[in-house]
């Protein structure tokens, strides 16, 4: 019907069906699937609307992972989509027909099919054809003229998104790297622990030494004070004894001088004085 | 290709036609189509234009009985 059942895409390898009960494919390729759906539609004409509903349901309930779940890192998106000629027919169709019919094969097939449909009026030319032609021409003109600009704009949007994500990632990496450096520095600092403790130990030893010497000095001072006191006491005592003895001796001597002795001594003194005065007068 | 044309009936007999597996197959086909033409970094018009063309063809097929009345000749 539509150029054969075999114009296929490459489908992912058959190791993804472990979850479902059957282990084989229903449709090897998309065209075959569409062919089957088309056949089903033609046979049950009354259920036309239901298939649209089913399609929309399938679109909304599309599974997130088509093939086996491969873990991170996710493979990057492919750069370009599959090759399509004239925007409608995938390149694989042309490659499929190339070995048997060469380069012009698909074009001859297309021309033949077109003429067949027109001549047998499987495709009827009516007002819709004119409308389709106008719409298609406008669309193609618009795409050809503004396609590159729209693509550049979309690429720019994508670039910005990727750049913000990359910036976040790079900032996170930089932050983590600075954290690593700081951690390494802290580890290096830890190695200087011994010096720190040595210095602290020296400080403490010095403090202890200073305190010890201070207390030694106070002890010395106190002992000296007490000894000085004892010495002063002894001096004072000796002084007092001396004074007392002198006084007592004087008192006793004075007491021992009887009045008779006093008279004799006075008389003697007078005689001496007279003699002295005589000798003085003699010399003069 | 995975299945040759000559082996088609044999291959058709091997796979089961439960609705669940049919739905699974449809889902897989849709996912493979999306991953090939839509989920790419720089896609083009080919992705949706093929879908629209398929939709046009399908709707033409569904309404063929009505369009048949506008044909230009009665006998081809």
Task: Provide structural commentary.
The complex is a heterodimer of chains A (284) and B (76). By secondary structure, chain A is mainly alpha-helical. Helices cover 73% and strands 1% of the residues of chain A. Chain A is built from 7 helices and 2 strands, in the order ααββααααα. Chain A has a two-stranded antiparallel sheet. The radius of gyration of chain A is 66 Å and the shape is rod-shaped. Chain A starts with 29 loop residues before the first helix and ends with a helix. Chain B folds into 2 domains: 1-39, no CATH class; 43-71. Chain B is built from 4 helices and no strands. Chain B has helices spanning 8-14, 19-37, 46-62, 64-67. Chain B is extended and about 45 Å long. Chain B starts with 7 loop residues before the first helix and ends in a 9-residue tail after the last helix. Chains A and B meet through α1, α2 and α5 of A and α2 and α3 of B. Chain B: Belongs to the ATPase F chain family.
Annotate the secondary structure layout:
The complex is a heterodimer of chains A (284) and B (76).
Chain A: H1 30-43, H2 48-60, E1 84-85, E2 89-90, H3 91-101, H4 105-119, H5 127-191, H6 193-256, H7 259-283
Chain B: H1 8-14, H2 19-37, H3 46-62, H4 64-67
Family (chain B): Belongs to the ATPase F chain family.
Protein name (chain B): ATP synthase subunit f, mitochondrial
Keywords (chain B): ATP synthesis, CF(0), Hydrogen ion transport, Ion transport, Membrane, Mitochondrion, Transmembrane, Transmembrane helix, Transport
């Amino acid at each position: 019907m539509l150029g054969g059942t075999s114009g296929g895409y490459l489908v992912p390898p058959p190791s993804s069906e472990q979850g479902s009960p059957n282990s084989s494919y229903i449709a090897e390729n998309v065209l075959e699937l569409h062919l089957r759906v088309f056949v089903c539609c033609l046979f049950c004409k009354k259920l036309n609307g239901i298939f649209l509903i089913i399609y929309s349901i399938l679109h909304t309930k599309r599974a997130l992972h088509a093939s086996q779940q491969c873990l991170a890192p996710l493979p990057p998106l492919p750069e370009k989509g599959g090759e399509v000629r004239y925007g409608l027919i995938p390149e694989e169709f042309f490659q499929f027909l190339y070995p048997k019919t060469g380069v012009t094969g698909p074009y001859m097939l297309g021309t033949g099919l077109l003429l067949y449909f027109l001549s047998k009026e499987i495709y009827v030319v009516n007002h819709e054809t004119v409308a389709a032609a106008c719409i298609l021409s406008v669309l193609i003109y618009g795409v050809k003229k503004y396609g590159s600009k729209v693509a550049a704009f979309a690429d720019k949007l994508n670039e910005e998104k990727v750049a913000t994500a990359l910036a976040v990632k790079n900032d996170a990496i930089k932050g983590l790297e600075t954290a690593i450096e700081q951690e390494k520095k802290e580890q290096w600092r830890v190695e200087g622990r011994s010096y720190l403790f040595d210095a602290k130990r020296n400080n403490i030893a010095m403090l202890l030494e200073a305190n010890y010497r201070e207390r030694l000095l106070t002890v010395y001072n106190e002992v000296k004070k007490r000894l000085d006191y004892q010495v002063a006491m002894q001096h004072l005592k000796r002084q007092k004894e001396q004074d007392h003895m002198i006084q007592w001796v004087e008192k006793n001597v004075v007491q021992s001088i009887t009045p008779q002795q006093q008279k004799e001594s006075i008389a003697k003194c007078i005689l001496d004085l007279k003699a002295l005065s005589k000798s003085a007068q003699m010399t003069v | 290709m995975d299945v040759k044309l000559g082996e088609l009936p044999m291959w058709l007999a091997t796979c089961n036609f439960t609705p669940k597996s049919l739905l699974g197959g449809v889902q897989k086909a849709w996912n493979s189509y999306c991953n090939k033409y839509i989920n790419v970094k720089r896609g083009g018009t080919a992705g949706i234009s093929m879908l629209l063309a398929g939709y046009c063809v399908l709707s033409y097929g569904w309404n063929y009985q009505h369009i048949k009345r506008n044909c230009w000749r009665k006998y081809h």
